[in-house]
């Protein structure tokens, strides 16, 4: 008996995944990616406010990322529910 016969790959068959499921997984991935950076930028903006001379760009970045996260979340819930 060869080693090739002992090794069985249990990979899912790509034909079982619908394009709808793939699209939902992509939307979830995008939401998680943008949401993570939105949280990090919010933390940075709060820390920036505590500085003696705060700058405006951390707050603008946080605003853009939070708006993007909410927009992606709303688009995802409308499209996939």
Which percent range describes the beta-strand content?
under 5%
Radius of gyration: 21 Å
Helix content: over 70%
Largest sheet features: none
Low-pLDDT sequence parts: none
How many independent structural domains?
A: 1
Average pLDDT, rounded to a whole number, is 87
Shape, please? elongated
Individual helix count:
3
Region (Disordered): 1-21
Keywords: Membrane, Transmembrane, Transmembrane helix
Transmembrane segments: 30-49, 55-75
Could you explain the architecture of this structure?
The structure is a single chain. The protein is mainly α. The protein has one domain. It is 73% helix and 0% strand. The protein contains 3 helices and no strands. Helix 2 packs antiparallel against helix 3. The model has no long low-confidence stretch (mean pLDDT 87).
List strands and helices in order, with pairings.
Layout: H1 3-6, H2 19-49, H3 57-80
Helix pairs in contact: 2-3
Entry summary:
The chain has 81 residues and is mostly helical.
Features:
elongated, mainly alpha, 3 helices
């Amino acid at each position: 008996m060869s080693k090739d016969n002992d090794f069985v790959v249990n990979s899912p068959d790509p034909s079982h995944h619908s394009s709808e499921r793939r699209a939902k997984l992509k939307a979830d991935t995008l939401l998680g990616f943008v949401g993570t950076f939105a949280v990090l930028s919010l933390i940075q903006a709060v820390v920036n406010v505590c500085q003696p001379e705060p700058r405006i760009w951390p707050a603008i970045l946080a605003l853009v990322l939070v708006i993007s996260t909410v927009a992606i979340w709303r688009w995802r819930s409308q499209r996939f529910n």
